[in-house]
Amino acid sequence: MRMGLDRAAFHAIDLRTHFGMLLDRSVSVRDFRQWFVNSQWNIELEGDDDTVDLMSLIELRLAELTSGYISEDCLIETLQADLARRAGSSTMHTASFDFTSDSAGVTVWSVRDLFPLQVDRRLVVEFATAPAH
Fold first, then answer.
1. Residue ranges covered by each domain of the chain
2. If DSSP states are collapsed to H, E and C, what string results for the chain?
3. What digits encode the pLDDT tens for the residues 71-90?
4. Taking the model in full, what pTM does it have?
């Protein structure tokens, strides 16, 4: 079990936060691409396998956009479809303990459900689930 926000967890949350903002169109494709290009190297070096896989998928789709194969609207639709295909295959979970409100609670998400998750005053604990016997 990991407690705190290590570099891999930071990159996972940061990528998913920005990716979620792109998907709900609260950030432009241009602004997302600028953030993405500046973040790729660190994600590649310090990210976990799932985050690097997601980064590679986004990089592929952005290349299709840049090459003129797809439009910005098609980019968003394609990424949403990619996300839906990926959603059922995760075995990692994240539990978030929110100590900033009067009613402290625990929320558990599948890693791929973290769209978007803001980085703020939360303690993030990651764990792998084992099959029940």
1. 2-128
2. CEECCCHHHHHHHHHHHHHHHHHCCCCCHHHHHHHHHHHHHHHHHHCCHHHHHHHHHHHHHHHHHHCCCCCHHHHHHHHHHHHHHHHHHCCEEEEEEECCCCCCEEEEEEHHHCCCCCCCCEEEEEEECCCCC
3. 999 999 999 988 888 775 54
4. 0.62
